[in-house]
Amino acid sequence: MKKLFIILISLLIANSAFAYYPYYPIPTSLSKLTKYFKKNNAELVKIPSYRGPFRRSDAYANIRDGLYKKLPIEVDALMAFPKKGEDPFPVVMFVHASGGASLFSNEWFKFNRQQARQLLKKGIAVMFVDNFNGRNVISAGADQGQVSTYSFYIDAFMTLEYLSKDPKINIKKVGITGWSRGGMISLMVAEKRLRDILVSKDLYFAAAQPRSPECGVTGLFRKPQPINETKMWYVHGKADDFTSYKQCV
Predict the structure, then answer these.
(1) Strand 89-95 versus strand 43-50 pairing type
(2) pTM (predicted TM-score)
(3) Handedness of CA 82, 127, 63, 226 (dihedral sign)
(4) Which of 11, 72, 130, 248 would you label with 182, given CA atoms 20 to 30 Å apart?
(5) Does 167 reside within a domain?
(6) Domain count along the chain
(7) Residue 21 covered by a domain
(8) How far is C-alpha 67 from the chain's CA centre?
(9) Tens place of pLDDT for every residue, the chain, 249 residues?
(10) What is the extent of the structural domain holding 61?
């Protein structure tokens, strides 16, 4: 009986560990994207980050108090560089929607790839980030609660810090863009309070292009404190009846 009790307790501890920490991250779907940027020396990289808060209700408090640092993870990203020109290069970071990084290589969502190719031709490097695989998630389309949006905000600034250590990147010319959940990230990177907690105050996104974010669940502050250096071009369809622009305004 005693032996059976010990086994049950061990299983309970093991199950709890797997429930709260991704020991075995799933493979990133960004590997499917490399074929589109072979000529641009596409490279998969690992970015140190943190799993982040689980609930939106106390997400900012978790970040403010440093609790997010208890669960370090790695997120995958794909980098591609212009064939012509000299470094350091400007770079635009693409962040995905709730459907996950597989959308980057999906035939129906080719706009991001087309945009990236145009940027590369103009001498601007590109980067695609997978915010899900390090958290053992493929898609949050059916269950948004799997990954807090604040986890994405952490990843964005951790990626910015990662780029600041790459001599091939002009850290004063980093942009970010995404739609839906990716738009929420592109919107929130302009918040000074988040930046000042997560990274050095001399780091910032020079440009942000949020596309159709869901502002009702972004976690926007009642009185935002914009980062002066972050120039934003907000894009939203006025006739959009799925994610309304009105709350964002």
Answers:
(1) unpaired
(2) 0.85
(3) positive
(4) 72
(5) yes
(6) 1
(7) no
(8) 19
(9) 555 444 444 444 444 333 444 445 678 889 889 989 988 989 999 999 998 876 666 788 888 888 889 889 999 999 999 998 889 999 999 999 877 788 888 888 899 999 999 999 999 999 999 988 877 665 555 455 566 778 889 999 999 999 999 999 999 999 999 998 899 999 999 999 999 999 999 999 999 999 998 887 777 788 889 999 999 999 998 888 888 888 887
(10) 28-232
